Amino acid sequence: MIDNQTSGVFVISATPFTADGALDLESAKRLTEFYLEKGASGLTVLGMMGEAAKLTPEESLSFLDTVLATVAGRVPVVVGVSAPGLVALRSLSLQAMERGAAGVMVAPTPNLRTDAQLTGYYRMVCEALGPDVPVVLQDFPLALGVQFSVDCLLQIFAENPQIVMLKHEDWPGLAKLGALRTAEEAGAGRVSILVGNGGLFLPQEMERGADGAMTGYAFPEMLAQVVEGCKIGKRDAVEDIFDAHLPLIRLETQPGLGLAFRKEVLFRRGAIASPFVRRPGPKLEAADMAELDRTLARLEKRLAELA
């Protein structure tokens, strides 16, 4: 199970499809092994970048079963269970936990606007799931349009101890991250904080107190290097490597088109058999491919120089 001390790199898994759009479970096995070989401390499946909303309920469970069987207990697996209604959210959560998941991730529904609505929502979620299901709260205002204040988050964590982790994706969010850690030092309960946004601010977020990353960048070994390097005081050394990856991180972090870039890189790295993004979804044009070619060539050259 995940807990409030969980750290490292939880890679958000892509969901592989065949070239005609069918779920590709053989690639799911290959991709899972790829993530583990590249240093993942854990995996997160059925997230936004995993195209969870485009899967049928049967496909979601089939993909989850494949990942869990491939992982075979080597690392914890968090399952995205966000849904408009609590009945569907609870059903998927309990099925995931029964299958061996280490926790579930819940994003707020987009209609929540006030602190009272947000605290009330997570109170209902935790009551529906019961106290034995570890929960990750996803704070991603750029995608969801929902804003959590620091005080609101602290109240939610205090009222619901089963929320053991924050998926921090506010942008800009360094001040919020620092404020949460300052509150912890002043006596607030601790939660694990893993950061997203493609890892775009990872070294700075580690400096402010993050425990690691939860994102899907196609070079997870770099994320693992940065997290470990920052923990042992070698930020300058690993930040040179991080800086070399920034142009590709920018491509992958773009709203919409970024997923197509990410899947194309995973395809080129041999992790999946097809870069297909299920419809409706973006498709790379010739100019996009040329830009990716140049970006990858520059990355390879710079990493060789650093080596």
From TrEMBL:
One of its GO terms (molecular function) is 4-hydroxy-tetrahydrodipicolinate synthase activity. Keywords: Lyase. Pyruvate binds at M214. The keyword Lyase applies. One of its GO terms (cellular component) is cytosol. Pfam families: DHDPS. Belongs to the DapA family. PANTHER family: 4-HYDROXY-2-OXOGLUTARATE ALDOLASE, MITOCHONDRIAL, DIHYDRODIPICOLINATE SYNTHASE. This is Dihydrodipicolinate synthase family protein. It comes from Salipiger pallidus. The lineage of its organism: Bacteria, Pseudomonadati, Pseudomonadota, Alphaproteobacteria, Rhodobacterales.
